[in-house]
Amino acid sequence: MELFKKFSVSHFLNTLLCFADAVTSSSTDSTRIVGGHDVPPGEYVPYQVSLQYFTRKNKYQHFCGGSIISPNRILTAAHCCKGFDVKRMTVLAGVRDLNDSEGVRVKVSSYDIHNNYQELVTSDIAILTLVGSLNLDGIRMSAIEVRGSDHVDGGVPVTLTGWGLRLPISLPFLPPELENINYPTILQTVNYHTITNQECTYSGMEDLTETEICARGAILTGACSGDSGGPLVMKTSAGLHQVGIVSYGLFVCGVFTVIPDVYTRVSIFDDWIQARML
Question: Which residue numbers delimit the Peptidase S1 domain (predicted)?
């Protein structure tokens, strides 16, 4: 699940020129796909969780990402919750592979969406409260630091993780045995950089607000459907720190390198988050 937003028509020709240049100069590394590279075997991203919905077919379906911020609180996007039946929502934690039988599944008891949330406009943030607490062992599961109101500017190296779409668009008619071409079961990771809000606005996201932060990288990298709600993380001297939550992007993911991915800016909501950690 990811929201998609049209970018400014005034930048369309410039975008095509940048895309053409990127195609002719980009690497031929076939492992570079939308959503990134496999997290290596034996390694975990311990703060990353899969939000899963119990469907009418009586199976759990991944639909969004999220991050552990305390033993019983998950940070995610508002659009991953709004209108959903909380009784069918669960969190799968402690896994690299969604098929890992050793993962921990916990039901969601409630979710809290920010009062100012407007789809594709502002405040795309929510906190899930779990029925029980996760055992944060520091290996398979641990909380990510989110505290702090410092502004993150452009040019900061960041890492995105998620189980979202691997291709720029979904291929809806694949047989079940080839579904992994669309959606991976192995957690993907990609590194790229933040850009300033001014640069993001100039790149086509003209309705950007101070509640958002943008990032972009090389061609065929970035967030896509299924990555929504997941964490954008930077390294600091004190350790990893979450700076963003996957919110929205171009409807054809990762193809036009000039068009950035848009994230909810976590630092803006520091007081709101801390008030819900009690």
Answer: 33-278
